[in-house]
């Protein structure tokens, strides 16, 4: 790497500046037993890893209800459709949370984004599918792809890839055409 620095004046995130690889985009996430890194030279990339657990002072149902306002009706119905099994409920909740986080990290905005604007669904109708689709403001975005994987010890990971044009303005300043 020729130069790696924190672009705090622009996006308050690490960015990589190298003339031989001008558009290297990367994202890092950590939770539980894992630290993950994804990189891409042609697309925006976002990544989130989560361990499917709940606060020890709440039931899984109580825990996920704290986040109800972050999900669309479709997403919420898919989360609770897995039934009363606490492990399945936490797994499905964290899968959707990874989808949301990977998207907002890819575009460079973070939790300042209205999470209900980005609705995730599974084109095959299987809520346990390993690929998801995005509707942004009600419009399906086929130029984005999301891949979910189950790791050991109850961890879930999601990698999001999408067009550089979707980056927020401050993040676009770190990208070259």
UniProtKB/TrEMBL annotation:
InterPro entries: 4-PPantetheinyl_Trfase_dom, 4-PPantetheinyl_Trfase_dom_sf, P-Pant_transferase_sf. Keywords: Transferase. GO terms for cellular component: cytosol. One of its GO terms (biological process) is lysine biosynthetic process via aminoadipic acid. SUPFAM superfamilies: 4'-phosphopantetheinyl transferase (SSF56214). Gene3D superfamilies: 4'-phosphopantetheinyl transferase domain. The lineage of its organism: Eukaryota, Viridiplantae, Streptophyta, Embryophyta, Tracheophyta. It comes from Adiantum capillus-veneris. Residues 45-159 form the 4'-phosphopantetheinyl transferase domain. This is holo-[acyl-carrier-protein] synthase. Its EC number is 2.7.8.7.
């Amino acid at each position: 790497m020729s130069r790696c620095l924190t672009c705090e004046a622009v996006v308050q995130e690490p960015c990589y500046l190298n003339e031989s690889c001008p558009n290297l985009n990367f994202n890092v996430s950590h939770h539980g037993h894992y630290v993950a890194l994804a990189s891409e030279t042609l697309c925006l990339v976002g990544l989130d890893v989560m361990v499917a657990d709940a606060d020890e002072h709440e039931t899984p149902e109580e825990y996920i209800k704290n986040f109800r306002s972050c999900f669309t009706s479709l997403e919420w119905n898919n989360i609770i459709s897995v039934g009363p099994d606490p492990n399945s409920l936490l797994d499905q909740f964290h899968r959707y949370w990874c989808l949301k986080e990977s998207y907002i990290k890819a575009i460079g905005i973070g939790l300042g984004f209205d999470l209900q604007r980005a609705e995730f669904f599974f084109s095959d109708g299987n809520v346990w599918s390993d690929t998801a689709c995005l509707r942004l403001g009600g419009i399906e975005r086929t130029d984005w792809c999301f891949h979910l994987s189950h790791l050991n010890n109850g961890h879930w990971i999601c990698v999001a890839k999408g067009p550089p044009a979707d980056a927020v303005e401050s993040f676009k300043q770190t990208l070259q055409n």
